[in-house]
């Protein structure tokens, strides 16, 4: 089986997964990012994966803005100005860290949301479509050997920052994706047991989740 072959129902039944699914299971956010970042056709392919996201009403709410190369320090200054307007209480260390990340990360991708409140599709569904697409970006980066981390903050609500990213009216900013190549190997972090978050509905029975049963125990 190649990475492009989907698993078949028969292989699901045997508990086997596809190589692509195995690779997805090792995804983790990375912010130790160095060059290269995806560009050109590679970046377009990653965004093509993003646009595979479910999108109720085909509203296509995603708007991506790439900040690369020499544009980064200038944009990092715009981020600092937005932070100063929206979260003046932010500790200086965090402020400096934001500036460093925005000015040096190989590729910063703004996750714009072109929202249509007048549409019969609820705004939350439009936002979910952008979120689903962002997850596809993270997965596609990982499958292509890159790394990424999705960040946000109160500064993302800053109207001037939004405007500088071409977002207007009801458009919002879902944050930024820091993108590049992981600086080196890292152990894959553990994840919760999926069974803890899964319940099976049965008629007349109260639905409860293993994770909540555990956390409800005293002590
Ligand atoms: C919408 C959104 C915004 C986030 N904003 C931040 C952020 O500002 N800073 C941060 O450290 N992590 C943020 N995170 C979490 C990281 O993207 C990441 O999920 C976290 O570091 C855990 O890594 P993992 O994806 O490997 O579980 C955000 C996640 C989401 C979905």
UniProtKB/TrEMBL annotation:
<feature type="binding site" description="in other chain">
    <location>
        <begin position="27"/>
        <end position="29"/>
    </location>
    <ligand>
        <name>FMN</name>
    </ligand>
</feature>
<dbReference type="GO" id="GO:0016491">
    <property type="term" value="F:oxidoreductase activity"/>
</dbReference>
<feature type="domain" description="Nitroreductase">
    <location>
        <begin position="39"/>
        <end position="180"/>
    </location>
</feature>
<dbReference type="InterPro" id="IPR052530">
    <property type="entry name" value="NAD(P)H_nitroreductase"/>
</dbReference>
<comment type="similarity">
    <text>Belongs to the nitroreductase family.</text>
</comment>
<dbReference type="InterPro" id="IPR000415">
    <property type="entry name" value="Nitroreductase-like"/>
</dbReference>
<feature type="binding site">
    <location>
        <position position="52"/>
    </location>
    <ligand>
        <name>FMN</name>
    </ligand>
</feature>
<dbReference type="InterPro" id="IPR029479">
    <property type="entry name" value="Nitroreductase"/>
</dbReference>
<dbReference type="Pfam" id="PF00881">
    <property type="entry name" value="Nitroreductase"/>
</dbReference>
<feature type="binding site">
    <location>
        <position position="56"/>
    </location>
    <ligand>
        <name>FMN</name>
    </ligand>
</feature>
<keyword id="KW-0285">Flavoprotein</keyword>
<feature type="binding site" description="in other chain">
    <location>
        <begin position="150"/>
        <end position="152"/>
    </location>
    <ligand>
        <name>FMN</name>
    </ligand>
</feature>
<feature type="region of interest" description="Disordered">
    <location>
        <begin position="1"/>
        <end position="37"/>
    </location>
</feature>
<dbReference type="InterPro" id="IPR026021">
    <property type="entry name" value="YdjA-like"/>
</dbReference>
<keyword id="KW-0521">NADP</keyword>
<keyword id="KW-0560">Oxidoreductase</keyword>
<protein>
    <recommendedName>
        <fullName>Putative NAD(P)H nitroreductase</fullName>
        <ecNumber>1.-.-.-</ecNumber>
    </recommendedName>
</protein>
<keyword id="KW-0520">NAD</keyword>
<keyword id="KW-0288">FMN</keyword>
């Amino acid at each position: 089986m190649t990475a492009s072959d989907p698993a078949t129902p028969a292989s699901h039944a045997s508990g086997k997964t596809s190589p692509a699914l195995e690779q997805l299971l090792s995804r983790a956010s990375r912010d130790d990012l160095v060059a290269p970042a995806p560009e050109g056709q590679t970046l377009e392919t990653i965004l093509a994966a993003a646009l595979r996201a479910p999108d109720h009403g085909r509203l296509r709410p995603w708007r991506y803005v790439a900040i690369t190369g020499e544009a980064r320090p200038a944009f990092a200054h715009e981020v600092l100005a937005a932070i100063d307007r929206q979260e003046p209480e932010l500790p200086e260390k965090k402020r400096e860290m934001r500036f460093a990340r925005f000015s040096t990360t190989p590729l910063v991708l703004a996750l714009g949301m072109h929202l249509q409140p007048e549409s019969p599709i609820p705004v939350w569904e439009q936002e979910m479509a952008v979120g689903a697409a962002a997850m596809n970006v993270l997965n596609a980066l990982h499958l292509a050997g890159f790394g990424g981390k999705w960040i946000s903050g109160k500064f993302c609500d800053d109207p001037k920052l939004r405007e500088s990213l071409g977002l207007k009216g009801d458009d919002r900013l879902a944050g930024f994706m820091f993108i590049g190549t992981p600086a080196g190997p890292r152990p894959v972090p553990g994840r919760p047991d999926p069974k803890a978050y899964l319940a099976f509905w049965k008629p007349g029975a109260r639905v409860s989740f293993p994770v909540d049963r555990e956390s409800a125990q005293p002590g």
